[in-house]
Amino acid sequence: xxxxxxxxxxxxxxxxxxxxxxxxxxxxxxxxxxxxxxxxxxxxxxxxxxxxxxxxxxxxxxxxxxxxxxxxxxxxxxxxxxxxxxxxxxxxxxxxxxxxxxxxxxxxxxxxxxxxxxxxxxxxxxxxxxxxxxxxxxxxxxxxxxxxxxxxxxxxxxxxxxxxxxxxxxxxxxxxxxxxxxxxxxxxxxxxxxxxxxxxxxxxxxxxxxxxxxxxxxxxxxxxxxxxxxxxxx
Length: 234
What we know:
Number of domains: 1
Strand order of the largest sheet: 3-2-1-4-5-6-7
Number of helices: 6
CATH topology: Rossmann fold
CATH architecture: 3-Layer(aba) Sandwich
Structural class: alpha/beta
Distance between the termini: 39 Å
Number of strands: 7
Order of helices and strands: EHEHEHEHEHEHE
CATH class: Alpha Beta
Radius of gyration: 17 Å
């Protein structure tokens, strides 16, 4: 059975990803901070015949990341796919941002992707294959007002994944990045299904794209994929 690690798996795109990857036959190792939400997800996947395990941790703390990866390898024996899905934003004029806010956003969006990727690469190299996928954002490629911090963090994540793609291709490790536009999640400060978000992408739309990338034939790598709701001008 193949194994997939999914960060920020407790809700939104991550939760949809975990359910869909389990249906594809993957054992899913779900990472988030909220233990209760992870256990609920694990129970749902198990009830539908899938295999899931929960790993509550802070992805910006290296010791926690290393410990979780070690436990995943001990249980499943290998890591086939890492999906770096975690991310959040603080949106203010640059002169109103605090140093703590800067560190918190950078820690999750850029450092978390780095730490998880760094931790799994040795196991993928040993196996002679693997796939690292980043769920970024369309503002990894453009900038928005009040988005100096968020854009900087996602540009950093995108640059890291792009350079990593060149480093590990020779090791038969794929690196892919997905750039969603507006998605109907909690990210925008409103509940899923809010009337203002009816024309946005659904979390399942993004999850479908990631699953498509993850399940491509071994000789195929989808380096980058941009996805928007048709109502969003880009």
